[in-house]
Description:
- The chain has helices at 20-23, 34-50, 91-104, 163-175, 189-192, 199-209, 224-227, 239-255, 281-292, 322-327, 358-361, 388-396, 407-410, 435-446, 452-463, 470-481, 484-491, 550-555, 565-568, 583-607, 614-646; strands at residues 27-30, 60-64, 75-80, 83-88, 113-118, 125-128, 131-136, 140-142, 153-154, 157-158, 179-181, 215-219, 261-264, 298-302, 338-343, 366-372, 415-419, 529-530, 571-572.
- The chain is α/β, with parallel strands linked by helices.
- The protein has 3 domains: 16-118, 2-Layer Sandwich (Chitobiase, domain 2); 125-161 and 177-196 and 211-459, Glycosidases (TIM Barrel); 488-532 and 570-646, Alpha-glucuronidase, C-terminal domain (Alpha-d-glucuronidase, C-terminal Domain, Alpha-Beta Complex), CATH 3.90.1330.10.
- The chain has an 8-stranded parallel β-barrel with strand order 6-11-12-13-14-15-16-17.
- The longest helix is centred in the C-terminal third of the chain and has 33 residues, at 614-646.
Amino acid sequence: MTIPELDDVHPAWLPPEAFRAVGSRRTLVAGDGxxxxxxxxxxxxxxxxxxxxxxGPHDLVITLSPQEGxxxxxxxxxxxxxxxxxxxxGQAGLLYGFFAVVRLGExxxxxxxxxxxHRPALRRRxxxxxxxxxxxxxxxxxxxxxxxxxxFWRDGVPHDDLTRVRAYGRLLAASGVNAVAxxxxxxxxxxxxxxxxxxxxxxxxxxxxxxxxxRVHLSVNFASPIALGGLPTADPLxxxxxxxxxxxxxxxxxxxxDFGGYVVKADSEGQPGPFAYGRSHADGANTLADALAPYEGxxxxxxxxxxxxxxxRDRSTDRARAAHDHFAPLDGRFRDNAILQVKYGPMDFxxxxxxxxxxxxxxxxxxxxxxxxxxxxTGQQRHVCYLGPLWSEVLxxxxxxxxxxxxxxLAVNGGLVAVSNVGDDPxxxxxxxxxxxxxxxGRLAWAPDLDPGAVLDEWIGLTFAATGDREPxxxxxxxxxxxxxxTYERYTxxxxxxxxxxxxxxxxxxxxxxxxxxxxxxxxxxxxxVGVDRTRASGTGxxxxxxxxxxxxxxxxxxxxxxxxxxxxxxxxxHVLRDGTTVIQHIYDTHFAGAEQAAGLREKWEKIDGLVAxxxxxxxxxxxxxxxxxxxxxxxxxxxYFLRKSGVPDAHGRRIH
Length: 657
């Protein structure tokens, strides 16, 4: 096996210099199999560059060590008598242990190290690609993609050379990801055929990712028995439909024995589903789960189901309620290999949302929590917005209070899934600093209790390993990125109200853009106040979908966290927040502050000039220029809107248009 290297693509967090500590030593790799061969090839490649060797006496031993309590992905890292040892429970553990040593660098070979058992907290750590085979007339090659075209397909055909796909698998394995769904959840006509006559393309991609332990999954159209099989129905309880899925799945596994399973978006935003036949989502999911069960495959069934033809005049209808209303009554009715994939918030990947109540409502169902690495609502990879702290907050949230389980604990059997932010851009993610979000997703999926700041430091240390004086660069990047989520939140939608984006492409401010549309994403600002009343006492009753204590906390105007105030309550502009400012003044202050902080990010980046490659510096500077411009536009539109709506002036007399 050869290690994938791309001359015209940024190496992200695996530059050659990151392998110096391993590659300059003598290493033994003991074990057989595909992943063991990958590790052996990685070590040989690093040694060829940095002067090490694969013969003894050994400084590093990476060995299979099957034993009770050590799973296939587990490894034990230790150092004794001058030898660093990775003892893995299975081949995957060899791979993850090797990359753990790469992350540690020289620290892996210093002093003594007591045995540390490393085990992924979540079994499935998966990325969903929203890639299209054909260029969609509205969404393009990659839906909600901000980093160029697909790394799998271009203009209707697969890429001839899959070296980049293998390099992508290498990056994912190094961060802890072990599964990828390769096509859009909105399955269009051409993409639907990946399940049948274009299955060879899926097999080729699976072959490119297999050496790095990445299992391929496929998004499928619920109506495939009609569209592909010529059946008159897709009723999940129809015997012919069930037989069609069983035979089709058998052919998939004949071509790809380690195939992961299916991803389904059904009865959502125009996608077909079981409602058309009077069936439940459990009925739909179970039919596919039964077809996959003989091969130990899984179906990820997305819970993103809501009425996207809502009457904006009807305040009793609440999009936030939809997933819980549809799925909570079905708890316990899904097969063991059906995984309900739930967005972390009840709306749609906003910069601030409460945790979805569905996550706590279905103890008898395997749940996967879904994040969005691609920055659809957080700057579209034109803005710096490090999302690690957001995800860390979600994963650590305890739906039943301080003594209850965390979100991460509730997702143990289902896993963590995120929409990928990768494209064929030379920097993988368009904005070079957006690579940190992809890396952080993998690391937090492996260990949700990691400090997101420490993860950011890891990414900086690996990605910029070739820099001579790394501490000034690390410090500057940490200052620039660590608080960037809060900076973005300050100049966009306030106090959890969400959206306020330009309809369709979702970039830039448009306060009333969705206010009178069918999409159910409203802020209800009027002359007296702003926010959505979701209380049981006088609103939509959404607060009642949470268990105690949060059902009471969110219901209470006095107790509701300020950062979520407008998500749960409609309040007067003069409502006083905990810091003593009014809602209207908070809107003004944060939007002025956010725009100033965005300008400060650009100033910090200018100080890095000379510490990073000129082309990378120029790309980030171009993105920061756009971020500053956009932040000022957000500031001016939001502040002007609320000044005109409320008639309340800024207490500090700043210019509002």
